From TrEMBL:
<feature type="domain" description="AMP-dependent synthetase/ligase">
    <location>
        <begin position="13"/>
        <end position="386"/>
    </location>
</feature>
<dbReference type="GO" id="GO:0004467">
    <property type="term" value="F:long-chain fatty acid-CoA ligase activity"/>
</dbReference>
<dbReference type="InterPro" id="IPR000873">
    <property type="entry name" value="AMP-dep_synth/lig_dom"/>
</dbReference>
<keyword id="KW-0547">Nucleotide-binding</keyword>
<dbReference type="Pfam" id="PF23562">
    <property type="entry name" value="AMP-binding_C_3"/>
</dbReference>
<dbReference type="GO" id="GO:0016020">
    <property type="term" value="C:membrane"/>
</dbReference>
<keyword id="KW-0436">Ligase</keyword>
<dbReference type="InterPro" id="IPR020845">
    <property type="entry name" value="AMP-binding_CS"/>
</dbReference>
<dbReference type="GO" id="GO:0005524">
    <property type="term" value="F:ATP binding"/>
</dbReference>
<dbReference type="InterPro" id="IPR045851">
    <property type="entry name" value="AMP-bd_C_sf"/>
</dbReference>
<protein>
    <submittedName>
        <fullName>Putative fatty-acid--CoA ligase</fullName>
        <ecNumber>6.2.1.-</ecNumber>
    </submittedName>
</protein>
<dbReference type="Pfam" id="PF00501">
    <property type="entry name" value="AMP-binding"/>
</dbReference>
<keyword id="KW-0067">ATP-binding</keyword>
<dbReference type="InterPro" id="IPR042099">
    <property type="entry name" value="ANL_N_sf"/>
</dbReference>
Length: 555
């Protein structure tokens, strides 16, 4: 537990001094080229940037924003902000100009680093007047006040900054599934607690490799990749783009990987697009051949070296976890929130109980309130919401427990099962309450369904809106449609057979749009925005229900 009280910068300086020439960050530059930065390179660049930041004469603890997709200099900028005594404010790289303005203004950010972005023109208008921009080495075309070269021209700081454990490290704005984003405040002690305990849980070390591809501004990637690399000394590879993702994965051959359920489903769909599900399932059932096929599939995905595979941020269908296990990869479910550094519960290897998340992580206390809410307390719990004491008091109890908003149950061994969001539970017109998440989990096991949202607030009976996978959409457009419909009707019958009468689905509505971040249906962390789904299709609900059909095609 020696690392438990050591702050992130202290850990970084120790690693840099011990192996300055060891490879740390691997950044793709396009065309198959990569830039490799050692611990010493990262330290040198961060010190020069910190020196320049100090030269701006900002008050200590000023907020400095980072707007960029994942790249090596995202982490270097973060370290520089901390070395200069300031607070980093990461923003999602796909926000609208309005959202950018909202976060920068609310956080009172004095400067903003601009890095790798797909659509800077759509965001640029959100930078408030008087907030200077600094272009990172990989940046979009545009006018910026300063360049990374300007910062690197400064003489590096000569001191070794020591962060106070209680010092604010970052403000992470939540992705806002239900409304205006809130600024979650974490001090260095929160990060140190979660990272040091987490690394002991996973037994990771300096020979391990990570691939960074989920937004670094999200707490899960921040902890798993940035803090994980500091506290365990892992090498970090960065993904270049969606188009090169599989190549990036194969280049890194990560030994540890974190993914949201949609990513793990995408991998599965990619495999099924090359080999029909039935054929693969038949092969996997064969004793010796099955193991060989499983290894080959994992190698094709670049996942053959993985020792720690994690999945979180949304409910995971048990059938999906079982599928990976049959391939030879045990994917462990994790549970946490931005408000506790994503550090709360974890399935242990060899102890996975399908449908249950696992036990609380070391140092985490958990209790279930009278109304069934999961509440947790640990050294990773946030300091509160920035400039919002009222919401802070609503979220953290007087004895320090974090109200998660999730309903749950615990078994005798301490495993946790989530049964829905307290705020997502809706009431039908018959006055009966329905929790959508467990029903969605049952539907999501179907290999042709990629996204699902159960609705029913104020309706006589719930129904499920479904987005088909790419393979499913192809089948729907050709002669395989009849077979697909039989399969989906069978799924509906099977799911309804396990539900109470008031929960049973009137039918499945197969919507034509694919829900994505770009069209506003998903948050940047790929969670479905229920209110947007309901707004988009709500006018059709009565008509679809009236048809009383098991399958409705929304053409």
């Amino acid at each position: 537990m020696a690392d438990a009280v050591r702050m992130p910068l202290e850990i970084f300086f120790e690693r840099e001094a011990r192996h300055p020439n060891k490879r740390y960050l691997v950044q793709p530059l396009g065309g198959g080229r990569v830039e490799e930065l050692s611990w010493g390179d990262v330290g040198e660049q961060a010190r020069r940037a910190a020196s320049w930041l100090r030269g701006r004469d900002l008050p200590q603890g000023s907020r400095i924003a980072i707007i960029s997709k994942n790249c090596a200099h995202w982490i270097i900028a973060d370290l520089a902000i901390w070395m200069a005594g300031h607070v980093s404010v990461p923003l999602y790289p796909n926000l609208t100009a309005e959202s950018v303005h909202q976060v920068l203004e609310h956080s009172e950010s004095a400067l903003v680093f601009i890095g790798k972005l797909d659509d800077w023109p759509a965001m640029a208008g959100g930078i408030p007047q008087g907030v200077s921009t600094i272009a990172l080495p990989i940046h979009p075309q545009g006018e910026f006040d300063f360049s990374w070269a300007d910062l690197q021209a400064a003489n590096p700081i000569q001191d070794v900054p020591r962060s106070n454990p209680d010092q604010l490290a970052t403000i992470i704005y939540t992705s806002g599934t239900t409304g205006t984003p809130k600024g979650v405040m974490h001090n260095f002690s929160n990060f140190a607690f979660a990272a040091s305990h987490g690394m002991q849980l996973f037994q990771t070390g300096e020979e391990d490799r990570l691939l960074s591809y989920l937004p670094l501004c999200h707490v899960a990637e921040r902890m798993f990749v940035e803090m994980g690399s500091l506290y365990a000394g892992q090498t970090v590879f960065f993904a270049e783009s969606l188009e090169t993702f599989l190549d990036d994965l194969r280049r890194a051959r990560p030994t540890a990987i974190f993914g949201v359920p949609r990513i793990w489903t995408k991998f599965q769909m990619g495999v099924y697009s090359k080999m029909p599900a039935q054929k693969l399932d038949r092969l996997l059932r064969l004793p010796i051949i099955g193991r060989m096929v499983g290894r080959k599939v994992l190698a094709g995905l670049g996942l053959d070296a993985v020792r720690n595979a994690l999945c979180g941020a949304a409910p995971v269908p048990g059938a999906l976890l079982d599928w990976y296990k049959r391939l030879g990869l045990e994917v462990l479910e994790v549970y946490g929130m931005t408000e506790n550094c994503g550090y709360s519960h974890l399935c242990r290897k060899g102890e996975v109980k399908l449908g249950w998340i696992g036990r609380n992580s070391p140092g985490v206390e958990v209790r279930i309130s009278e109304d069934g809410e999961v509440q947790v307390r640990s050294g990773a719990t946030m300091q509160g919401y920035f400039k919002d004491p009222v919401k802070t008091a609503e979220t953290i109890t007087t004895d320090g427990f974090l109200r998660t908003g999730d309903k749950g149950q615990q078994d005798a061994e301490g495993n946790l099962r989530l049964t829905g969001r307290i705020k997502e539970i809706f009431k039908t017109s018959k006055g009966k309450y329905v929790a959508p998440a467990p029903i969605e989990n049952r539907l999501a096991v179907h290999p042709k369904i990629e996204q699902v949202c159960v609705v029913g607030d104020g309706l006589p009976q719930p129904m499920a809106l479904c987005v088909l996978s790419e393979v499913g959409r192809q089948e729907a457009a050709n002669s395989a449609r009849a077979e697909l419909e039989v399969s989906l009707r069978s799924l509906l019958e099977e799911v309804n057979g396990d539900l109470d009468k008031h929960e049973r689905l009137q039918g499945l509505v197969l919507v034509k749009e694919v829900w994505a971040v770009d069209n506003g249906f998903l948050t940047p962390t790929l969670k479905i925005k229920r209110n947007i789904v309901e707004d988009a299709y709500g006018k059709r609900f009565p008509e679809w229900l009236e048809r009383q059909e098991a399958l409705v095609w929304h053409e």
